[in-house]
Each structure stands twice: as structure tokens, then as C-alpha cells.
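Appendix B. Raw example, untouched.
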Amino acid sequence: MERTLIIGLGRAGLGLHWAVLRRLRATGRHTHLLDPAPALCLDPLVPVTAPPAEGLRPVASIAEARTLLDPEHTVVHICTPPVARLDLLRELAAAGFRRIIVEKPLAAGRDTAHDVLDLARTERLRLSVVAPWLASALTARLVRLVDGGTLGELRSIEVRQYKPRMRRTLADKGHPTAFDIEPPHSLGVCLRLAGDAHLTHAQLDDMRIGDTVIPSMGRARLELRHRTAVSRIVSDLTAPVRERSMRLEFTHGHVVAHYPNAEDDHYAQLRVSRPGHPETWEVFPDDALSAYLLGAYRALRDDTPLEPQLQLGVRVVELLADAKTASGAARAAAQRSGGQVAHAG
């Protein structure tokens, strides 16, 4: 059984990781994997004197957590923003913790991602980068369609990631640009479906709320060229509606895939169209984050090789870094990390 230490008690740490772990533990079906003892939690920025949620026990430091946990039987969840990861990983390594789940994206920039990769190799860290879309039942079906060849060769992937995120963006400066929030999910899937790629176009818009302008946090666009296909990703944090979808065009048909976009409705949809055949439409359960976390705990426990996953996480950061450079987002990201929010007029 694996104990849990969650570092970072914001939306990812409490609202996602702990919410899912708590639900999984409550089923009683994973006692061989998830220790029912209270999970330890640490917020590096806000000292907690009382448990923020049932089943959690706050600690004041990694050093204190080390006195209460055996690193050989502990999974650490790093849920801090991507701009604050490397030093934390070094501190965990020094304390003996080596089995670590890291929220996406792995880092906010190319150099830091490579520093994390070097640290993991030097300190023998076992890092699993959060990638629920890659653990999704819908993605598994898309992979089978691509690999099976019944629709011919994959030619293009069109991704829509529409997610209204105004309030959280005003309150949270941990993500430098809109490229760092939703695109890491879909970019990993595009690389899995169509192979490695290089960036051909990127554009980034500011978020505008009345007279307030938040640099680089509005609509993000990426275009990638794979060996035989093109991927286009559009992520809009100012959209009035939610949508997480992919359209795959093949030489002999197309597919429209909708990922779940609400926490209380874990169902995906898949439509497959092929000339001369009736269209198929499936709706099925797809609790991707639960599937990812259970898979990550098993892989960390069983010493499953994680280097390929880590390298994919680094590649995602590299392509996002290319997109930031191409879109001229570097200056605006620096402004945002410094806490500057512009006002029009």
C-alpha cells in the first residue's frame, strides 16, 4: 500500500488529485494500492494549521513529512504551478522521496524541463507527468482507429479546448500563458496519434475582461506538422461554453471525439463516419483522471519504466516553448509572472 503526500493545495491538489483519491479510497476496491491512512499535505505558500479537507493531515515542511512517511512506500503529488518545480524536486530528492507525480506541464520552459530530466536521471527519480487524456478510454479508441487502418491514413487533427476561466485567471498567476493550461492535454495525444512534430504556427491573444487585460491568457492556437498529418489546436479561456473535442480526418473517413468536460459527468462520445457505411455513435464512461492516477500508482509501485512518459512530457514543453517564442509571448509571460495586469484606456 502506498501513502500519499500532496504538495500544493490549490485547484489541482485539492480539487482534482485529492478529490479523486478520496473517491477511489472510499470504494474499498483499491486497498492493495492506496493506504487508507490520512494523506499528508503541504502548501509551500500558505501554512495550514487545520486540515483543509477530511482525510488530510497538514505538515509544515518536506522535512516533517519525512519523519512521518517511508519514501519507499510514498507517492508524492506535486500540484504547484509549473513555474515552481525544480527546487521542490531537489528538496524531495534530498529527503529521499523518489516516486513522484508531477502536474502538467512538466515545466514552464525548455531549459527547466531539461533540468528536471537531468535531475531525474541523476537522482534516480521516478516521475510520472499527469496526462489524463493519454489514460482516457476515448484516446485508447482513437489509437486503435489510427493503428488499425480501417479508415486509411490519418491526415489531420483539429482540437477544440474551450474552457471559460476568467475568475481563476484573475486570481492565479501560476501559469505564464494560455499555452500552459489546456494544450498540454491535447498536445500529448496528438503526438501519440500522429508521431513527433514541429511547430509551424502559433498565436496567442490576451484575456480581456471589461477594462482589464491579462497578457497571454486568452485564446491560444498551435499548428504542428507531423510526418503525414497536421494538428491544429485551439484553446480559448474566454469562450462562453465548454468543449473538449477532436476531429480526425483520414483518407477514408473521419472521426469526431468529445472528451468529458464536466467533473460530475465522466462520459465521452465518439462518432465514426466512413463512406458506404452507417455512421456509428458511442457514448461511454471515461473517468480519465481516476484511470491515470491508478495507473501511475501501479507503475510507481511496480517499477514500470517511466522514462518514455517523461520524455514525452519534455517534448510537450519543448513544443509549447516554441509556440511561446513564435507568438511573442515571452515578454507578456514575464510581465504576468511579475504580477502585472494591464488596464486598457
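End of appendix B.
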